[in-house]
Design brief:
By secondary structure, the protein is mainly alpha-helical. The chain has eight helices and three strands.
Length: 170
């Protein structure tokens, strides 16, 4: 039996919100391109501040992503009570920060929430997960990063397109 959005009711999430959040932060840190030459062992997890909209874009896409990510996210709960799911997700993000005694930094220039991890900590955390989970989670994190391209990038692309149109119309 399908519900009104076309997804099966019998799809169940396989991980807790706590595990999902921890893996999200750790994989964001692992994929970090930020380099601090004074602290080469530190990686910075950068979560776009519009993470709720990004997750919505991913899950409401016309792809198989909602089914694929149902292993990570309670899809039925998400689609039936999205605002409640988002509230619980935000609280889980906050609990992770406070329970791990991390300093949260807000990057005002690029609109990212940032947390620091050591490379050893990242490897230790990732070793706790199986390959299938990491593969699915990696895909999800890649999409978060792809859709989370910051406003400066978007504005820069518009400026390039505008300049290109101006040049071509001459």
């Amino acid at each position: 039996m399908k519900n009104d959005i076309g997804y099966f009711y019998d799809i169940n999430r396989e991980v807790s919100m706590k595990v999902f959040v921890e893996a999200l932060w750790v994989l964001l840190a692992q994929k970090s391109q930020t380099i601090d030459f004074n602290r080469p062992n530190i990686k910075i997890a950068a979560l776009p501040t519009n993470y709720k909209e990004i997750i919505e874009t991913i899950l409401f896409s016309d792809t198989n992503w909602p089914i694929k990510f149902s292993k990570l996210i309670d899809i039925n709960f998400y689609f039936e009570k999205q605002s409640k799911w988002e509230e619980e997700f935000s609280k889980a993000l906050e609990r992770f920060v406070t329970s791990s005694n991390r300093k949260l930094k807000y990057d005002f220039q690029f609109d990212y929430i940032e947390l620091e991890f050591t490379k050893d900590e990242i490897e230790q955390k990732l070793s706790m997960y199986d390959e299938e989970f990491l593969s699915t989670m990696n895909h999800f994190v890649n999409l978060i990063q792809r859709f989370g391209v910051n406003r400066n990038h978007d504005l820069g692309m518009r400026e390039v397109e505008s300049n290109l149109r101006r040049i071509l119309s001459r």
